[in-house]
Amino acid sequence: MKEKLVEILHLKDKTFIVNALTSFIRQEIEKAGFKKAVVGVSGGVDSALSAFLAVKALGKENVILISMPYRTSAGSSIEDARLVGKTLGAEFHEIDITPQIDAYFQRFPKASKLRRGNKMARERMAILYDFAHDRQALVVGTSNKSELLIGYSTRWGDGAHDLNPIGDLYKTQVWELAEFIGVPERIVKKQPSADLWPGQTDEGEIGFSYHLLDQILVAYVDLKIKKEEIVSFGYEQATVEKVMQMVQKSQYKRKLPIICKISQRTVDKDFLYLRDWGT
Known about the structure:
Elements: H1 2-9, H2 14-31, E1 36-40, H3 45-58, E2 63-67, H4 75-88, E3 91-94, H5 98-105, H6 113-135, E4 137-139, H7 145-150, H8 171-181, H9 185-189, H10 202-206, H11 210-222, H12 227-232, H13 237-249
Parallel strand pairs: 1-2, 1-4, 2-3
């Protein structure tokens, strides 16, 4: 069964998927009355793939790429973000967020690494939306399905966006599609890291590899297989339980803010369709 799960994760028709994702970007941006996109590029494969898809969808003249390193960011991450900009030939900005982050945490010198990392993620998103406003653009997201399902993102930080072309691709599928579309090999092959502090890696924080995580997720989420059966496939029970708990406990991150309904037509409950606008 493990082999079947791996096979399910394999992308059968990558050309079709690329065309679907680029059409999605183009249509959603035009539908909202815009022509341009802003993408934050970290030097990682997820943001690189989103950037490549955006340029393919809109043309390099309509995409603004922004790298936002902190003073502890790995030099390789900075160089890889620059490589994405150079390869695509789109407008590229590198903005050091160290001054504003350090100024804020002078008040809280004992703040944890996680608190600092979350602040950095939200600061970066604030910059992306500032550029989006200035350039009359929408922000293209860079979170993959694996991260979204287990809550491995910062709410209103890297988890924020106006549209997300890769949010239904598991991490292993992101690697596969990134290689297919032409993302530089050194970015595709590098160890995944949010680069929030020196030595930080995604898989180190999660506790196991993305390959293992994605197999369990596709069984649990896509195939709706129960825990006991997934364990019977040869996965450790503790690992399966941890993945399920991460999915369940992070549900709030996947929902828009809830509005308490007290009127006849509430924004997120009743006022939902184009016909509500008289169109």
